[in-house]
Design a protein that fits this description.
It is a single chain. The protein is mainly alpha-helical. It has 36 helices and eight strands. The strands form four sheets. A two-stranded antiparallel ribbon has the order 1-2. Strand 1 and strand 2 form a beta hairpin. 27% of the residues are buried.
Length: 862
Amino acid sequence: MEDDDQQKTLDLVKELVHRLLSHNPTAPNNAAQNPNPTDLNNSFRYAVRILSSKLTPSIAPDADAIAESIKRRLATQGKSSKALSFADLYNKFASKTGAGSINNKWAVLYLLKIVSEDRKVSQASQNSALLLPNLTLDDREIGGDSRNSRRGDKGWENGVLVVAKDPENLREIAFREFVNLIKEENEVSEEVLVRDVLYACQGIDGKYVKFDADLDGYVLPENFKVPRSTRTMVRKLCELGWLFRKVRGYITDSLDSFPTAEVGTVGQALCAALQDELSEYYKLLAVLETQTMNPIPLVSRSAASGNYLSLRRLSVWFVEPMVKMRLMAVLVDTCKALKGGAMAGSIHLHAQHGDPLVHEFMKSLLRRVCSPLFEMVRRWVLEGELEDIFSEFFIVSETKELESNVSQKAKESLWREGYRLHSMMLPSFISQPLAQRILRTGKSINFLRVCCDDRGWADAATEAAAAAGTSTRRGSLGYGETDALENLVAEAAKRIDKHLLDVMYSRYKFKEHCLAIKRYLLLGQGDFVQYLMDSIGEELSEPANTISSFKLAGFLESAIRSSNAQYDDRDILDRVRVNMMVQSTGDRGWDVFSLEYDASVPLNTVFTESVMAEYRRIFNFLWKLRRVEHALIGAWKTMKPNCITSNSFVKLQGAVKSQLLVTLRQCQVLWNEMNHFVTNLQYYIMFEVLEVSWSNFSDEMEAAKDLDDLLAAHEKYLNSIVEKSLLGERSRPLYKSLFVLFDLILRYRGQVDRLYKGIYELQARNAVSLPSKDKRKSSKQTAKKPSEPPGSWIGEGRKALTQRAGEFLQNMGKELGAIAKEYTLLLEVFLSELPVQQHIDLKFLLFRLDFTEFYSQLHPTK
């Protein structure tokens, strides 16, 4: 089967040769129709030899490209219809597969294209030799022996037969004339210009090409006779030397000024990377220098080969170095005023390039440049060390003292203010969230080391490095390994933050201290507060400047021992102390008394001075509320005895008795209103504010993953108490109204004491005039009363006593009426301001105070 196909191919080739020889226009008519059998046989053998050779065209075997080329050529020649017909035929030709189809379709198209071009040339020159140039050779030129015997003749060169002959040496004569013409037009030879260009590319002035400071570049003087094309090419090639001078100048200046803050380690790494690139550049120039030793041949047959260096060849050699040198020059200009992370980020932006050559070059450069920066990241994340002598890192330390000499104040602010991000030094390939995690991880290590005196973080860092698939050794991180960096930071942050919270909860009992503050500063320990209020009340009623803080500390200790607080941890109880605030003229002990909680390192990171000041504000408010409640309870204790309903008042005049009953009823009604307000307000504060906020804070403490989460949870807890307790900025008018109400209630307590003191005196005076049996009863009730001062009602007559009692009760009724009226107005203002408050819980306070809608019905228009 293969023999049949081969024979068919040979027959087709023979027919093709026959047709080509038959259409020779220079041959006689009969010769054209019937070619010489010898010529036909020789041409056939030569054609077979060409087809059986391994010569291939210097094009890619792409059938679609050749078809597109043919179609485009037909279209440009104005043969649009033929182009469309060809496209249709090609589609049918390309789609045919299977038996009878042609596998090597592109070769068929290429052959047809070449034949078409040969015919076009033959029609223009009417030379049949161009149809198939070597088909007219005789047998001697294609025979093996004659070919071997003539290989040394001029027509043969490197085993290839040159068809065109030049018996008169016209080409050699033309070459000599061209040489003379070149010598006349060029005063400077090309070899010298090539050497000068190489000198210029090394920053050295050549014989003709020199650096012009005014023009800031290498120039070839105009007085030398050189063709314009050569001058232009020299100027373009010398651009490489100008770029080289810029890069080398930057390296020299930076290394001369190192070590300074303006250069830094990242700048030094950039200089080292650029110097390595210049070393490769020097190697290239050395290779080119060796090629300049060979003379440049003139235009001849041997000019296409040979190891020589011309300006055009030099331009080809300089393509890649020019690209790299331009990039380095751009980086030098960009990074001249930058350092550290800012420099690395700027170089990273230039690496975002679509050219693979530029991208790879910038990537290899960035690996060198970012090496110091990634080493800083590694040491900070795994060791907590901030080794940044030249302020290049994107994390800045605000603490200037040595670790061994860090003060208590510095330790308190170490977490919040000790370290911060320097956004100007943050490289663009490190995102802001990743930078925050890096900052927090290093801060956690330093917090454990400095404030907690803990060394367990080292094991956590080693475990993190192992889990991330890296090591703790220098150089384990580098540019382009962003995923590895994020993985390492995530693992280190997770383990170190967990260890930090374990230390805070277990070793320093953070939760227990928070609970202690709630119980003692926020008055959550009811029995302790009651004992303290009862024991210290009389002392605090004295002027503030007469009260001893040591005596108050004794009362505090007594209250602790008398309540369940005595079972708390002694370390916690020792932190609860008495604090006397700044005194003003006329202040009583109630106004300046306060409790404080001593939070030492590392607890003062959470309980800072500003935080404790907020706790003091809350304590003062709660203490005032408890004082008002205590005053109302004291008033009730004063009003409770039944002595006022004694039979001794039976003999009083009806008017005085009626006035007494009205005054007592007025006092009792006002007490009920005040007690309703204070009780519901205290319930709201203690349960709906403090307990709810504490429950939320406890849940957030359990969910906290790092110290920042813990600080945020505590800040939210404290702000929630402040806002709900009317202590926020938005509730300041309501807060002032509330304190006016508190002062009015305390004033009411004073009036109650005055009223019942007068009633007790009236009872004592009335007992003087009673029968002996009634005197004994009355004496039992008044035995415990202190002796009355001179000038009291006891020494007066019964008529005068009745008159004075009526006046006293009338005045007390007026004063209580005024207090009741003022209280109603103030309460109305307070209740009217509650609905406009932004916090939703304050609206629930209004619901509690007016759950029977008494006040709403009393003032329906408000």
